[in-house]
Write a structure and sequence with these properties.
It is a single chain. This protein is an alpha/beta fold. The protein is built from 17 helices and 11 strands. The strands form 2 sheets. An 8-stranded parallel β-barrel has the order 1-2-3-4-5-6-8-9, surrounded by 5 helices. α2 crosses α16 and α9 crosses α16. It is globular and about 60 Å long. It binds flavin mononucleotide. The site of flavin mononucleotide has 31 residues, from β3, β4, β9 and α10.
Length: 354
Amino acid sequence: MKTRFTERFQLKYPIACAPMALVAGGALAGAVSRAGGLGLLGGGYGDMAWMAQQQSLVGGATIGGGLITWSLDQTPELLDAALAYKPIAFMLSFGDPRPYAAKIKASGAALICQIQRLSQLDEALEAGADVIVAQSSEAGGHGMTNRATITLVPEVADILARRAPDTLLLAAGGIGDGRGLAAVLALGADGALVGSRLWASQEALVNENSQARAIELTGDDTDRSNVFDILRDITWPPGYTFRALTNTMTERWSGNEDELLLVADEEREKYNAAMAANDYTIGHSPCGQVAGLIRDIPRAADILEAMDTQATEILLRLGKRLQLPRVRELSPLDLPGVAGPQRGLRGEGGSSDG
Ligand SMILES: Cc1cc2nc3c(=O)[nH]c(=O)nc-3n(C[C@H](O)[C@H](O)[C@H](O)COP(=O)(O)O)c2cc1C
């Protein structure tokens, strides 16, 4: 499968591994890149000793990296250290990327900016983002409520087609198999940024008890709240929440965060003890709604291959079922506002020759 994203980064699959803080280490980022995706090392809040150790596990693969922007604002000097590893791409999420854009681009890395709302798109485009990641609420880990992949991705795709046609678009949130990958390509993305499904891989830095809960639970069993940020004593900017598998902590405190703050010390002790004992009925398992699609813990390379094969089969099957003249008449790509450089799959739609 070829898209503008695979061509830009010389990939086999239109899939990037999300730079999941402390989860996407050198083994996972390296495995994804070696398999033919784009591996991004999850620098998170910027622990440089961790990053150095993980870089030594990449195994010579070409990878990128990522940091949490509002945290970088507190220690901007960390960016130089992260860029010293010569990432092929660098992703900033959760804050204003503009102060860091020039340095990232001068290093030779492509700038990837993850957004949750249209109102954040201007900043990302002003920063000169090479790739926008449109992250919806289904996603695991931090994000925002309200937006779903099926409307956010085409809305961003339309704006990019008009305003920044060379800027690539990845969809993030809820993409767990080839059906999801095919869907976001159909919505106008150039590829997918996958977090939770790769969190449930052999190379991820995740305890097996935590991954086992994802296998056991369904997509109903996740929750977005500030509970685990309070328990970990990390203050996130307003508007961001954290999606994790439900457990006794979310059942008790999600929606009651003000009350939790009153007993935070006591609850933190329980939480820390549970995390030390790998007890995820109390400790957190950061996994999105994709939990309902996680049935095993394969190698990252197998996840990518299965996603790509299934997506290709679906797209070919649907293509065969459609009757060409009708497609030409009804193609939304011919409608005003969608015109512009072809997005998504190379050779699919976008031109009037059917
Ligand atoms: C365990 C975990 C940790 C994450 N950490 C980060 C992070 O440090 N920085 C970031 O930009 N996004 C982070 N994310 C969000 C991802 O970038 C991505 O948007 C999300 O995983 C996509 O949705 P999905 O989980 O349904 O695949 C994290 C996601 C997970 C599951």
